[in-house]
UniProtKB/TrEMBL annotation:
Cofactor binding note from Swiss-Prot or TrEMBL: Binds 2 magnesium ions per subunit.
Xref: NCBIfam families: bPGM, HAD-SF-IA-v3, PGMB-YQAB-SF
Pfam families: Hydrolase
SUPFAM superfamilies assigned to the protein according to its UniProt record, in alphabetical order: HAD-like
Family named by the database record: Belongs to the HAD-like hydrolase superfamily. CbbY/CbbZ/Gph/YieH family.
Species this chain originates from: Trichococcus shcherbakoviae subsp. psychrophilus
Name assigned to this protein: Beta-phosphoglucomutase
One biological process term in Gene Ontology: carbohydrate metabolic process
Site residues (Important for catalytic activity and assists the phosphoryl transfer reaction to Asp8 by balancing charge and orienting the reacting groups), renumbered to this chain: 114, 145
CDD domains: HAD_BPGM
């Protein structure tokens, strides 16, 4: 029986995925590294440090020392913070507020499983700080997505088995993590899949129908 819902934040609750992309794009441009939105799919769900490494791997002759990398990470986050400075509840993605409300009144426990260190700040700006029963702190994790740890920890924080939760993600790394945690997965707007397939796919958040999702997932068991 499904009792919990575990949500990624960036690209699921709000459109910060685009802002992460824009912040990285400025860094990449400056380094003479070409990235576009399609290439960016691989950065979704990936930690700040690993994202920089993936970008730098595109230009093997661009050798930076630890200090220079640290500087770029700082700059990326500073620009990202500028881009999210004006976020309000109006930036909650279509359908999400209704879904959260329906889930609350349905008695589902809810958690955020985001790799972002900025997650608490964003939730506050969106006016959603009190909606979730748990927000996993990514600084306390040993492994990043696609490892299942963050989703296991989210279920644990809700006092539930992973099988009793549904995970919502917009990234390939996230879908892999959810499935490896033994959770049913809902993929939102992911163009192509790799090894790990979600249980349910929707094109956009506005297409999420809680009752239908729970019914489909329960039928599969
Ligand atoms: C994830 C995003 O949620 O958080 C990634 O999908 C991002 O794009 C990661 O790199 C880390 O975020 P932050 O805010 O800690 O740099
Ligand atoms: Mg995401």
């Amino acid at each position: 029986e499904i009792k919990g819902l575990v949500f990624d934040l960036d690209g699921v609750i709000t459109d910060t995925a685009e802002r992460h992309y824009l912040a990285w794009k400025r860094i990449a441009d400056r380094l003479g590294i070409a990235i576009d939105r399609e290439w960016n799919e691989r950065l979704k769900g990936i930690s700040r440090t690993e994202s920089l490494e993936l970008i730098l791997a595109e230009k093997p002759d661009c050798l930076l020392d630890a200090e220079e990398k640290e500087q770029l990470l700082k700059e990326k986050n500073a620009h990202y913070l500028e881009l999210i400075a004006e976020i309000t509840a109006a930036d909650i993605l279509p359908g999400i507020s209704d879904l959260l409300e329906e889930a609350k009144s349905g008695g589902y426990r809810m958690a955020i499983a985001s790799a972002s260190k900025n997650a608490p700040l964003i939730l506050e700006r969106l006016g959603l700080s009190t909606v979730f029963d748990a927000v996993v702190d990514p600084e306390t994790l040993t492994y990043n997505k696609p490892h299942p740890e963050i989703f296991e920890r989210a279920a644990q924080a809700l006092g539930l088995e992973t099988q009793a939760c549904i995970g919502f993600e917009d990234s390939l790394a996230g879908i892999e993590g959810i499935k490896r945690a033994g959770m049913p997965a809902v993929a939102i707007g992911i163009p192509v899949f790799a090894e790990w397939l979600p249980d349910i796919e929707v094109a956009a958040t506005k297409d999420l129908k809680l009752e239908e999702i729970v019914r489909k997932v329960t039928m599969k068991e």
